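User: Is it possible to get a 3D structure for a protein together with its bound compound? The compound here is zinc ion. I've pasted both below.
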Amino acid sequence: MKKYWTPLAWVGNRWIKNVLLTVDSTGRLHQVLGDQLCGGAHPLEGPVIPGMPNVHSHAFQWTFAGLSEFRTRQRDSFWSWREQMYRSVEQLTPEEYYHRACKLYRMMLAAGYTEVGEFHYIHNEPDGTRYPQLERLADQLVQAAVDTGIAICMLPVLYQRGGFDGRPLEGAQKRFELSFDELLSLSHRLQDKWGDQPLFQLGVAFHSLRAVDPKTIGPSVEAARAITGPCGPVHIHVAEQAGEVDQCQSQFGKRPVELLLDLADVDAGWCLIHATHMSEHEICRLAEIDAVVGLCPTTEANLGDGVFPAAEFLSAGGRIAMGSDSHVGLDPFAELRLVEYGQRLTTHRRAVLCDNDHSCGERLFRDALAGGAQAVGRSRVNGLEVGAPANWVVLDPDHATLSDCPAERIMDRLIFCQWGNAVLKTFVHGDLVFERHPLQGSS
Ligand SMILES: [Zn+2]
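Assistant: Yes, that's possible. Here is the predicted structure of the complex:
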């Protein structure tokens, strides 16, 4: 057993003093006790908060972040960005994919993320030729996660077609093509190879309702869960763009979220990425079930997607989790800030997303932590709780964020004050996996 002690920790959605954290040999929390003396435990320097799951990542996109901030036509959009993004991966080799992922995952650990949901859809060589091993590129990502120490929920993506009308994939999209049978074969191979690795969790994903035949979703989930387990994570991009909603309506007579809920048994294992454009009826239906919406606010802002209706969705009982998606932002606190600011900017109010128990920052952190754990396959435990993975972040006690700040306002300081990174150390499964070098300064 490893034992750690901290003067202050966020436990059970509140701050507790003098906390002893005991980690068992599997990397899970065995005991979490307040009002304890340090004794022989390893002392941690500052306040401890749970690590935030990053539920939506495309590792290949991060080196492209910031390289498309210019005009390519009269009116640029998500769709023109997508063409540039496709071109950015034409030359990507497996070796480069591994190195890119390693750098990205180290940056995530430094930012306070401890788990990554990798929505993996580059499966083939650039012209669509299959690699001799279907898992060639997926393996690079899992290996990068294991080598950097971040936990990974690997989500191999079904990608069958080029649009709602069923057009075939062409050009750069051939790199993403994966059939139903190939998805199952890839899932089997990944589970066989990595299933014993404690940092690894397998799920399944559908690129979008644009890119898969809706009729294949139900059978795919059933077959995938025979491999991942009955509650295995299922992710999908849905309703990110207004144009996508229009196309879906003209093809199927239904909006995307409505279509998905009618087609599939969407349960607590599901994470709907973006879900930005929903009618009131869709918001109520989605909030009523146990599925999570994966929000990626900095990417959604960067791509001009729209503002997720967070106030309506959360007040109806909806669940959220956070992702960094294209990685223009790599900061869980900035993502949470933007969820609240989107509401303030559109409603002209302040403190929109707080509730009776918690301030805005505390409520957002609480909800994203629970939703995040659920979206990466841990529906029962989250945060610094017995049985949960021992994933946490130590905050720098000398950082401006903590200066003259009462404990009950630390979460709001972290989320609403943009004073630089306050993360000093990051632990995953009880192991130190990131430590800020003293020369990097405290703010
Ligand atoms: Zn995405």
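The radius of gyration is 21 Å. Residues 159 and 177 are 5 Å apart (CA to CA).
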